Amino acid sequence: MIKKILLSVILISIFWLAYSEENPVEFPGGSLKGFVFDASSNVPLEYATIAMKKKEDNLLVNGTITDQTGFFKLKGLDFGMYEVSITFIGYNTRIIDQVLVNPEDKHLDLGKIMLEPATEEIGEAVVVADRPTMTYKIDKKVINVSQQHTSASGTAVEILESIPSITVDIEGNVSLRGSESFSVLIDGKPTVLDPSDALSQIPASAIENIEIITNPSAKYDPDGTSGIINIITKKNKLQGFNGIVDLNVGRFKRYGGDFLVNWRKERVNVFFGADLNNRNMEGQRDSENRTTVNDTTSFILSNGDFKRGGQSYSFRGGLDLTLNPRNSINFEARAGYRERIGSSLTDYQEYTTPATSNEFYLSEESSSRGGWYYNYNLSYTHKFLKKDHQLYTLLNYRLSDSDEENLNELFDAADGLSSGQKSFESGPSIDYRVQVDYTLLLRENDKFEAGYNLRIDASEELSELEQYNPAAGVYDYMDNFRYEVDHYSEIHAIYSTYSGQVGNFGYQGG
To answer: pTM for the full model?
Structure first.
């Protein structure tokens, strides 16, 4: 069954490729070109940055850098009014306002642009407007991460800590609306990691927005019963070769960093990046438990230290290929390793009043969980002539290999080991997914969506247990507690949704 579906997808892709080659289409919209020179020496400036922003929303929509002759050219511009900024280190920024691209005048030539050297800069910065920290849509709320300055050096977990409906416990486990049963997507694509592991590994500096979908439509998988968290990563739209590097360091051996390099030239974009995060936390715990039965009161007092931490690193790369204005292919691959560790040492005292017993003992616990994971995505997008009318296809393959160990030991007052238990879990899991989504915008605020989803999950899990034998002073292997589980599931699903808006009232059904 899988082979038939994959073969069908491949044949469809080949058909589109063949069609695209036989029916080449020029990029629609307009173009913009020009030269950038030093105003004092009349020398061309190489690597000057050209950025285009839409006047209506002031968002960056395209950009490039100049070559060794000072020349630049931008293609495939949508019709509309733009603001063009030209910047270069050591020079005053040049702003060209009211640049109109329309069907009658769509190929614009700015000619020779002269930049003045910045010999002196005096003035003040005035913030005219800022993007809101959070915006609400019909089925989700969107967090603008650029406004979360206090969490810029952390991970997605630190950003979500301050968001209503999300809680993070002392061990870094994330809950959405009081439940840990939610799904995490990265750029709309599934991840092989557990939700809390995925959020603790993504650097905040690499995130553009976070979408919290608490009322997911029929389009999404039913795994996340309490909702979906979609991480939108930053994209670089500048032409040429460029990169971003972020580093952070903190107390208790907390440090991290990430980088992303990008090469874009017209229809081709290649990117590669890596990240590293090391998080540690230390603390103390004290508690008192009191139970009264008839005339006897039992007390359990405890105090001790604990440590929690983890390390993760990953590598990612990909290719964006625009076959023509209406057909594009994207391939992404990510591989990484993650590990979470914890330990605690706690003193206990148990006694009763009236005094019938008084016992002291020590509890020591440690745990570790981690392993390698791999994630591959191949997607194809076809845009029809009408705005927001498209067909999207995704092939996804995920592999995770994880091992977990837990140790619990009790020592009596003489520091002798009285009881102990070791547990082990291991096993790989594999997930295949085929997704087809069709979107049609009927009116300005009315949208119809339909699609098909195939999901295949296969996993093997081995659980083992060792129990401490005080008489022999060794751990015995418990054959009765050995479990081997082989799991396989195959799900085929189709969906359709319709959403719209009447005045300030939005609705969605599926």
So the answer is: 0.63
